[in-house]
Amino acid sequence: MLGRENPHANDPDDLDWLRASLSINAGPFSGTIALDITISELVVLCDQLEATLLSLAGHLHFATIEGNWSLDIAFETAGAAIITGSVTANPAIGNTLNYEFRSDPYSLEAAAKEIRRTSEAYTTKQPWTKVAETI
Question: How many Å apart are CA 61 and CA 56, to the nearest integer?
Answer without folding.
Answer: 15
